[in-house]
Amino acid sequence: MASLKSGNPLLAGGGGGGGEGAGSSEHPESASKVDPMVAIRKHIFPKRMYCFFHWNGKRQAMVLILIHSFAITGLPFQVFSQEFDPLGTVVEKKAFPVDKRSSSVFRTRVGQSVDSYRAALEKLVGFSEKKGGFVLSPSVIRRIGIKIETSCAPGLQVSTSLVDGLLLLLKKRGYRDDQVFLADQDLQKLKMAGFAKGPSDARNYRGHRLFCSVDKEFFDPDWFHDSPMPPTTHDRARFFLRFPTDREKRIEEERRSYLPSLLFLGDVYWINLAVAMDSPPIGIDGASTNLSLGAIDNYQRFLHKPVLGPAATTEILAIPELWQKRAFSILDLSKFQFAGGPAFDAEFVGRDPVLLLGENPISVDYFGLQALTSAREKRGMKPREPEDVLIFRYAKELGLGDVKDAKLFDLP
Predict the structure, then answer these.
(1) Taking a C-beta distance cutoff of 8 angstroms, is the pair 270, 327 a contact?
(2) pTM (predicted TM-score)
(3) Could you read off the pLDDT of 75-85 as tens digits, one per residue?
(4) φ and ψ at 300, to 5 degrees?
(5) Among 14, 44, 181, 262, whose Cα sits 20 to 30 Å from the Cα of 172?
(6) CA-CA distance, 246 to 193, in Å (whole number)?
(7) Structural domain boundaries enclosing 306
């Protein structure tokens, strides 16, 4: 189901989030009806964002985010789900999800060789499994899609050594080449990063299929994020060329951001390989953005937006079908950028030869931000405080976890 069931609404007046209800994220509990007039009175300057997620034209839901004011960033928002009863009457209900999966993050040092990455990953995955994490086995997870990060290649990207080490680990765990594939958005960046070398119609890496946005399998027309945010000039021109005589179709497409459905439909679970970059609008461009904004077809639409960027990031992650298909996220801090984002700037590159692994990308980014903050302080820059990073705040309200509850385990 493509509806957004996750979302802890804020208490009236912008206080803390609602308490967790019983049950899992797959079966959220509902509270009493929401009085829209009360919501309007308590949110003086509401800004509405509608996010529709469709599945084969049969199911849809709407997420309504009330943002106090675009002039003041960081203020809390409220989330509602909207359903229809058999008579067609709209019934608005608060959703109280509970995600019982671990928010713990595991950290270990790593060298630059493929074998060092493989050994580090074996240690991290093994410890995660002992702590109750997903078991990495073909009998549990039949197919794996690895989302890599190459948007700033060749300056800052997921290293081929990390990918090779992970592929070796998966092979040792019993996965065949056809059970594991790699994916990222931009074909040109994949080539610059050293992953795509063959012709466009026969891409593979180390015997594994390599997908990008030019492949019809990457997106599904029934899976998209809908937002009133204006498109970029480039996207608007592209839609005009595609639909020169159909204005309604152009407007419809301008609102949509198509999702990487190949990473979560069917029996596929995803592994998220990311790097960390400072991002003034978002706070940290890392694991969370790699699986959300870094995978949609028009990510530039949100990348520089200080409120809507974090909101879109967490909304996309909160889609139950995507969120429930996560195996784990890995953030490689061997090379990161602590200022000057979201474009690559070699002047602000830092290095800390460690890997972070966790089932929750929000928690992984929380500890990744600490490395960026430490590097910024050494250069006399203002730190990025977690309290000011909106993806952490929004993630809590959408039921993706509270980073304050995340625990870090250092492995020898």
Answers:
(1) yes
(2) 0.76
(3) 333 333 333 43
(4) -60, -20
(5) 262
(6) 38
(7) 105-223+259-410
